[in-house]
Design goal:
The protein has ten helices and seven strands. Helix 2 links the parallel strand 1 and strand 2. The longest helix is centred in the first third of the chain and has 23 residues.
Amino acid sequence: MSDQSRHDAWAAGESYDAYMGRWSRQIAPRFLDWLDAEPGLDWLEVGCGTGALSGAILAQAAPRSLQAIDPSEGFVARAREIHADARAEFAVGDARALAAANASRDVIVSGLVLNFVPDRPRALAEMARVARPNGRVGFYVWDYPGGGIGFMRAFWTAAAALDPEARMLAEDVRFPFCTPEALVGLAREAGLAAVEATEIAVPTVFRDFADYWTPFTLGAGPAPGYCAGLAPSARERLRERLEAALPRQSDGSIRLAARAWAIRGRAA
């Protein structure tokens, strides 16, 4: 495991939901609206996590079937628990070696996952392989280089002020390719045609500082993994710095913005 990826702990489904899942669920329906797939199709979701995008597909896309995979057994178990639907099948799987047959699915999607896949070109090539002729392939990732997740950027800014080495763990450093131009390029290299990009933005509103801070202490994700690994005194210094720095509304809530880049294309 590399130094930069050592905090990528994603096994605990409930902890992930508290940290990122609630915001992922806001992005997913907007992505599906833009993807604009017809009803009655066979879907494959690559990297389903706890099922934020899965749930949106089942609720609004009227799929004939949904196969969803994720490398985390904990996430797959959580997704099965949340989305008990006869149309959906959740399984442990690898984005770089999809078990699905060639040209076997109408729509292949991936939400907030691609940046964590070690071999992105291979994963996208696999998605293109599984798509039926003229099938839709779409994915989205957070705008890390552009500071698109305000609550995450605030965390790493405070952490780096106390621990300069933390700067190298921040997602904008680790995932500089998460720009529309680079993502479109990856999709085209995978053989997709008619590739397009769009921005999807949602507000992230925390009731109070505790609502913001607690998910960072649960260990599910890069920033929470880093936070959970700190000595208690260092964690308290980080907490105090963030509490003093974050903007508050008159009711004590913390309102920040989140932005993702979405890509869609067609298989040959």
